[in-house]
Each structure stands twice: as C-alpha cells, then as structure tokens.
Amino acid sequence: MSINLIRFRQFKVLVYGAVNKPKFVKMAPVSRLNEAINNAGGLQKYADPERIVLIRDGNSKNIFLKEFLLNGDLNNNPQLTDGDKVFVPFIDITPQQQKDYVKYDNANKVLVIGFVFRPGAHYFRPGYNVKDYIALSGGSLDVGAVKRVKILKKDGTSSMLAYNKIVEPGDIIEVPETYGSILFGNTGFIQAVTSIATLMLAYQAATQ
Predict the structure, then answer these.
(1) Domains of the chain with CATH codes
(2) Each residue of 153-204: pLDDT tens digit?
(3) Are 63 and 55 spatial neighbours (Cβ–Cβ below 8 Å)?
(4) Which residues, at least 6 apart from 132, have a Cβ–Cβ distance to it below 8 Å?
(5) How far apart are the first and last CA of the chain?
(6) Count of CB atoms within 10 A of residue 173's CB?
(7) Is-above-0.70 flag for pTM?
(8) Most exposed of 39, 163, 204, 208 (fewest Cβ within 10 Å)?
(9) Is 34 helix (H, G, I), strand (E, B) or coil?
C-alpha cells in the first residue's frame, strides 16, 4: 500500500498594521485569518482585535476577531485566499507611538533605479506599492516613463506596467526613459515636432 502526499499550493497574504512583524506571509488554502496574524508575529499590545479589516478584490469586510478568540465564531475567522490583505488597526494612539511599537521586516530593502530624482534603496514598508516607492525617491523625472515602470523580482522574473502593484522585499523598481526622450533627447516633444514641421515646410518652399 502506498500513500501519496498532496502538497497544497501556497499563496501570500499581506498582514499589516498593529502586528509585531508586518509582512507578506505564506498561507495554505485551508488557512484562516488568525493563522496569518500569528505568522506576522501576532497582535501587538496596541492592536484593536474588534476592528480588523479583510480586504479582498477591492472589497472590505470588518472582522471581530475577538468573537472567535472568546467564542470560537468561525464567521469572524474566515479562510483566506490568494491576494487577500489583513489590516489590523491601532487603538487610539499617536502615529509616533505606532512607529515605536511596530518592527518592520527590513531584512530586504527595495531598490528604485532609473529616471527618478533620488535613485537608491529604501526600507521595505508593508502595503506600499510602486507609486509609493517612486515618491520616496523624489518622484519621476520629466523624462521618466512611469506608465512603463517594471518590477524585477529576486527570482529573476519581472512584472511590467507595475505602477500600482504592491511591492515585496528585495524587489527592484525600474523607471525607464520616455520614448520621446530617447528619440529627441532633452528637446521637448512638441518642440521636436515643430522643428521637423518647420524643416519640411522649408524644404517644400525651396523645391517649388
């Protein structure tokens, strides 16, 4: 008799806010919300377990985790799916107090390169997308093509048209040069078109 072990496909869930280690955590298809929070270091002392928010496909659902912890109510400890986000709010404390009690997972930084004002590395911040990291780098230059920005992953893969995509630790964000800058250099596109049109009119006048 042989036994075949089935390996379930894992997926990632973002857990952020008032947990001890906000980050992406790996989950199995049968995993529930409390497991994701535990994998992110658990609730920290200023967390509010009665106002947790589950974000799925752009929709938000309030979760009263305390009901599960006290009464075993599974409706307030749902199973998670790929792409879910779990936000744990703080109780009423100041933003500075929030920073003091949250330790971000900064083992892998995020690098922003290309046509931005201040290329360089940034600490990983859970929940930040490409647009946020470009802002941390001073924004894109006039010749930076943010619509064609891409993410280079640690495993060698890349993600195109990534302006609004969530960033993971170790990602490299590359802002390429605009096609207009590549073709015309520092000359503005309108100026370049005007110059070309002027040359064409001059040529036509000279050949008539």
Answers:
(1) 11-92 (3.10.560.10), 126-182 (no CATH)
(2) 877 788 898 999 999 888 899 998 888 777 765 544 555 555 555 556 555 6
(3) no
(4) 125, 167
(5) 94
(6) 26
(7) no
(8) 208
(9) helix
